[in-house]
Amino acid sequence: MTTQGLATDAGLASELRLAVMRLRRRLAGERHPDNELSINQMGVLGVLARRGEMTVGELAAAEKVQPPSMTRTVNCLVETGDVLKRPHESDGRQIVVEISEQGQARVAADRVRRDAWLARRLDELAPEDREVLRRAAALLESLAQKD
């Protein structure tokens, strides 16, 4: 992309989108070879590890998918032993999902591996570039939280 293209919000949006997608793919490639879970399944485990137990509907909203899709994902994670599910205490129509100890360990190992790769890449940058990325990380998180 040209410097002129980056001067527009549309140009910046395109560059950011591509860079974030490439980085996501690269980080996804850093998973342990024995980890048979999909990126989406690992995403659900990550949400549960950060936020604690949630209903299937809350998980679907957090991951921006339809509840039937989340139900399938949760059922797969139950089969692998990475999550536990139980009926909601006050609303029998809902299911509460929580991460198991095995799921917690899987998320922790995955984060260590990916963080180590990214830390090595960041070490290659100049200190001022790392500071720019530190500020950008907060801005990108803010963008990700908006509807």
From TrEMBL:
InterPro entries: HTH-type_Bedaq_tolerance, HTH_MarR-typ, WH-like_DNA-bd_sf, WH_DNA-bd_sf. Pfam families: MarR (PF01047). It comes from the Bacteria. One of its GO terms (molecular function) is DNA-binding transcription factor activity. PROSITE patterns: HTH_MARR_2. Residues 9-142 form the HTH marR-type domain. This is MarR family transcriptional regulator. It comes from Nocardioides agri.
